Amino acid sequence: MKFKPVGDHILIRPDAAQTESKGGIFIPQMAAEQPVTATVMDIGTNRFTSSGETIPFDVKPEDRIYITHFCGTEIKIDDTDYKVITSDDILGIILPDPKSGK
Q1: CA distances from 56 to 44, 49, 53, 78, 81 (A)
Q2: Which end of the chain has the smaller Cβ count within 10 Å, N or C?
């Protein structure tokens, strides 16, 4: 199935929830925190101001981002979990570390 977000919507693939603590303790899925990082997969068609002017998106596909907890709508496409969010749910873009290149 193909999916194209429209308007101010953004398709993201959230990172997997952490299933083990730093100390090596297993965290059950129900207790695991919702991921707050994700990868932008696709962006909508346009964002508009209240006066109808077009605003460019701050993100592009493949950007790594921080998002707010519990935002968006979860969807499944070809057995992969995604979320559809709006640009208001994005807290920032994760920039590569110049020392490691990651």
Answers
A1: 10, 11, 10, 29, 26
A2: N
DSSP-based three-state secondary structure for 65: strand
**Phi-psi domain of 54 (left: phi exceeds 0; alpha: psi -120 through 50; beta: other):** beta
If one counts every other C-beta atom within 10 angstroms of the C-beta of residue 74, the result is 9
Tens of pLDDT, residue by residue over 68-98, are: 988 999 999 999 999 999 999 999 999 987 7
| Residue of 35 and 10 predicted with greater confidence | 10
The CA distance from 4 to 94, in Å, is 23
Quick one: fold of 9-93? 10 Kd Chaperonin, Protein Cpn10; Chain O (2.30.33)
